[in-house]
Amino acid sequence: MSNTLYDFGMIGLGTMGRNLLLNLADHGFSVIGFDKDISKGATLEAAATAGTTVKGVSTLAEMVQQLKRPRKMMMLVPAGSVVDSVIEDLLPLLEKGDIVIDGGNSHFTDTLRRITYLQDKGIHFMGIGVSGGEQGARTGPSIMPGGDIAAWKEMKPLLEAVSAKVNDEPCVAYMGKGAAGHYVKMVHNGIEYAIMQLISEVYDILKYHVGLSNDELHTVFKTWNEGELQSFLIEITAEIFLKEDDLTKNRLVDMIYDKAGSKGTGKWTSQDAMNLPVSIPTIDAAVAMRTLSGFKDERTAAAALYKPTIKTITEGKEKIIQLAHDALYCAIIISYAQGLSMLHKASSELQMDIPLKDVVRIWRGGCIIRSSLLEIFTAAYKRDAMLANILLNKKVAAIVKKKQGNLRKFIQKSIAVKIPVTALSTALGYFDAYCRERMPTNLIQAQRDLFGAHTYQRTDKEGTFHTEW
Ligand code: 6PG
Hints:
- By secondary structure, this protein is an alpha/beta fold.
- The chain has 3 domains: 8-174, 3-Layer(aba) Sandwich (Rossmann fold); 185-434, Orthogonal Bundle (N-(1-d-carboxylethyl)-l-norvaline Dehydrogenase, domain 2), CATH 1.10.1040; 441-469, Single alpha-helices involved in coiled-coils or other helix-helix interfaces (Up-down Bundle), CATH 1.20.5.
- It has 20 helices and 9 strands.
- It has helices spanning 15-26, 38-47, 60-65, 81-90, 108-119, 133-139, 149-162, 180-208, 214-225, 232-240, 252-255, 265-275, 281-293, 296-306, 317-349, 356-362, 373-383, 394-416, 422-434, 441-452, and strands spanning 8-11, 31-34, 54-57, 72-75, 99-102, 124-131, 142-145, 165-166, 169-170.
- α5 (108-119) links the parallel β5 and β6.
- The longest helix has 33 residues, at 317-349.
- The chain is globular and about 75 Å long.
- The N and C termini lie far apart (82 Å).
- It binds 6-phosphogluconic acid.
- 6-phosphogluconic acid binds next to α8 and α12.
């Protein structure tokens, strides 16, 4: 065994683990990676940039023993029981002061449990959210570390070096106490689900009602990406429409089965929003629509039974494209607002002290939900770090006021032509309800009191009341 001491170790050399390690090596760190599959170690070494120090090994012991102290290592393995079993395998090899990072999409409650478990043994355990997919890991992801402050200080130079940069500022910052890193990443993914669902609804109208070809869809999204909608998700959507299928020579997007997968982070966001509680209906709708997409057989039967017909228009296309643009922009802002309001609430409820101004700042680059809107949000939280909801910021309000009329018109049109716009509608519904000083929930309180003596509060005096209805 060589005596070289490495700066950083990676457990799990799948694409994400390998790419992050190569990224670290490119920034001058000596790195070592472990994977049970020996071929992955070889792939890692073969992909290393000339002159960098990169080693692949096939036992955990070989990796741990060759790390500099305090030993710093990250797991990038599937979330769930695999993380626990890697921790058990690691424990006999570790010593007090070592830093173990879980860089996967683990549920924050698992992270909290693991922090306590390892703290008792003198091991620093951190949950870190890493966003940016395979490419991001290789060239610069957005990194969301949380928990152990001492470990964060040790890790800071490495994480800053590999992260994405916006105006030379690294897209990594301390996200708060406990499992804040994984919590912020979970909500990032919830927003990701919402934006993807919103884009798919707009695509539905533009393809089936407006009748745009894939080339035209490409042009629309490409143009949008050059304006206020500029974002990673709009950019890749434009690219997708051009990709040809090797097998049929059709556009690939048309050959892809319409059942969406998911690994759980969107669902967890909705579940925890209900626990807090906080209202994030557009994220909930996005999760629900992915679920409904899985009921293909039932949808096919229902389509045969109800025979919805979707009329394609021949005139007025430009007008609908403009409505679609404004509707999407407005609903995306409202989706961020829901996710950020969740972080605001969770920050105090779960005692994480999440710095929202840093969250939006590090989301400006590297991550899947990066967009030019994040610049506006960063300025808003700089003004008021404790802003409960981004919709309360004057600059954001000015945009939403201007666009909400077209969101409304676009939804009306979609409903009239029987194209479901569930996420767009929930965004508008949330906004309309949020702007109502008086909601109709007085009636719900009356009903609860009538059938269950659940009591109510009055508008004119303090206290709790019950009426014999
Ligand atoms: C990211 C992504 C990444 C992953 C999602 C996909 O930020 O890089 O969010 O973590 O692509 O987990 O989630 P689903 O499989 O649930 O869509």
